[in-house]
Amino acid sequence: MFVEQKIGEIAAKPLAARLNNFVTDFAQLESRFEHIREIDSKKLLERYTPEELRGSQAVMAYLAGLGIRTPTTSEVSEAAEERKIDTLLQRVASEPWWPTLRAFADELKRPNHRGAFRSTRTRKSYLQAATGLLQHTATKPLDQRAITSYLRRCPGQRNALMPFVGHLRRNGHSVELKPTRAREAATSRNAADAAIRQLLEVLDTTNNFADARAAMAGVLVGLTGLPLEQVVRLGVRAIEPTGYDAYFFRTESAAIALDQRLTHALTNYLSLRDGAKAAHSHHLFPGNSLHRSVAAATVSARLSRLGASARLLASS
Description:
Elements (H helix, E strand, L loop, with lengths): L1 H10 L7 H14 L8 H7 L2 H5 L2 H9 L7 H19 L6 H11 L8 E2 L1 H18 L6 H10 L4 H13 L11 H24 L3 H16 L3 H4 L7 E3 L5 E4 L4 E3 L2 H16 L20 H10 L4 H5 L2
Antiparallel strand pairs: 1-4, 2-3, 3-4
Helix pairs in contact: 1-2, 6-8, 7-8, 8-10, 11-12, 12-14, 12-15
């Protein structure tokens, strides 16, 4: 068995004194996989809890040394957040309004209106707000009066509650929850969405690195709402390959799983970036010097030439 082989290797080396610390972890690995050939990152996330993965560093290092892809820190964190969502849903499964919450949870797993998947942390926040409202109404009608009453009690939940109210509207409830200056915000958002689609088309067709660099930066501004000055300073580590022909984009204030079209756009950009001899730069958007990021003003000017505006994109 592959675990017996590993234990033999450890015992034959000076690490023998640490053998007892490893036996349990490797025995658990063997109990969950019949053969090492079936192990991959996805199956490790399925068969281990996030806590177990974090506590099995020796096993993960061993697998990585064999060339087996193990879960990244962000993937383990996502799995932990997913377990919190499952716990939340299980805790209220006996409530009469649980089917409503379950349907909303299923909707949140689908791409949003921009085609991007929500992070598990975002989904958890939305579900917590929805649960709070449903618990507040209990057996009372889920109507506009209930929403107003809940927000009077918990005003800080207004933004997190908006997706659930939208879900209720799409399912026949006569309710609404508008942000301040809703009409202007909606108009701005629609224009920003159109600009993002236009920039994605640029990334599909251009062979010009400067155009692709500006378009990719603009798309990330639109998806995250981060200022252009912050986006252009991002390092390549902000983009994490998931191992399933997709990427995960993460900053301190945003986390987005890129869908198929966004992944295609990013792949095209990275190809042009490598062709511009920037493959070894630590900057996602390098300037003329590979050791420095491109200036925000340079990208902003290029976006204007492409018919887009960084300020408009950030308002999406």
